[in-house]
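ok posting inputs for the beta-D-fructofuranose job
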Amino acid sequence: MKKNILKLLLMLAMLVPLHVKAQQKPEKYRPQFHFSPKAHWINDPNGMFFLNGTYHLFFQYYPDAMVWGPMHWGHATSKDLIGWEEQPIALFPDSLGYIFSGSAVVDVNNTSGFGKDGKVPVVAIFTHHNPKLEEQKTGKHQYQSLAFSLDEGKTWTKYSGNPVLPNPGITDFRDPKVRWYAPQKKWIMTLATKDRITFYSSPDLKAWSLESEFGADAGAHGGVWECPDLFPITHNGKQVWVLIVNINPGGPNEGSAGQYFLGDFDGKTFTAQSKKTKWLDFGVDNYAAVTFSNTGDRNILMGWMNNWQYANQVPTDPWRGAVTLARDLDLKTVDGETYLTSLPVKELDAFAKSGFALKNVKLTAPLDLTEKAKNKTGLFRLDLTAKDAGDFTIVLANKEGNELTVGYEKSSNQYFIDRTKSGETGFEKGFGQKHMAPRISRDGQIALSIIADVASVELFADGGLTVMTDVFFPASEMSSLRIKSTSGITLDALKYSVINP
Ligand code: FRU
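and the output
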């Protein structure tokens, strides 16, 4: 008996330190304030909506492996767009196919008739991708279907009349983004159809009629068009319609990226103000970005923080993929041309409290902020302004000598993120590169915000006119920070905040 108790105590003693150790060690590369699933594969954010104080994020999810596979809709919820709680899987593949990307609307008027006992239906409109039909090469393996929820997104019922929009013979026929068009009391579906966008309308989400097409001769066409979005923003008292079109490959720094058009929409046709290609984000890791529905005048964008070029190889385990920070969208006109701006949602401020501020810093020698920052985690937000700026480089580094740099190049008037020496890069030959983005603003003062998580950096320049998002995989926390300038610049103001999720 005594022997048994001793044995038990010994076993317990052995278990405790192990358990403590396991708790202390965070998983390598795990984002701390960007959503990533506990395990397995994630790609596009889907069906995002806001209802009764909760933000819902669904996402392309494969729960059986860390590579892309038969798609489900995973689900996560948040009160503040920063901290996310993973929920049970919302939609599973069925006899009609895998559940590809799409959107969700809160059908307040119960146009769909799915509402019951006064419960407002949330309706998901998604692409069914049928792998059997794909094998038969009919070209008709993608079609649009519905599911509805009467408990605010917890549980879902697929519509018995699926599909609601059959395939007319277009191989890439997917990613429906639906919104209510109040002037004509109808739903508008913006659908990616190979190399263009096709608009459909419906009174009840079930019967769809073709309205028009846009884009065969506009914008970038280096890849297939996917995951579109359409919404208005009021700019200088006028309504401007924004059409987002994700494209893969063919982005400004190669691979997957999001472009957008500004113009007019009359319930039938989208007319672009200009045919110039404009990019939502010049980094390489913001794809399939679309907005939340039911958020009133706010347009909140979120993308998949990854790139199809290497998404199946990034060195994380047991999950693969994450989403970007949520961003508030607006418009700004520079020299007669209007652009979309994105800035991190203000909800992030509550997590970025402690830190320090400096004014009028002349950068004659590199400025090492590591001691002042006293930030072992390397999670931070840095806001700075500089007048008539020459070149400057912000260096995030760790004890292993990995370096991720973000900065401005005066000669070419471009911002950059350079991840060539940022840590693990060998899993794909194009990963370790420097990415460039044009400075769009003409302001004499440069304004930058940099937001760093464990394995990502997001740059918002000039009030969100130029944005870059890149992931990277350092050997340990990037807890050292310095700013250098070969030409010598003066930072008018600098604010450093530790992000404490
Ligand atoms: C974009 C995309 C979508 C498609 C989904 C499949 O990343 O290719 O067009 O619906 O991913 O997972």
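notes: The chain has two domains: 40-344, 348-499. The helical segments are 2-24, 131-135, 370-373.
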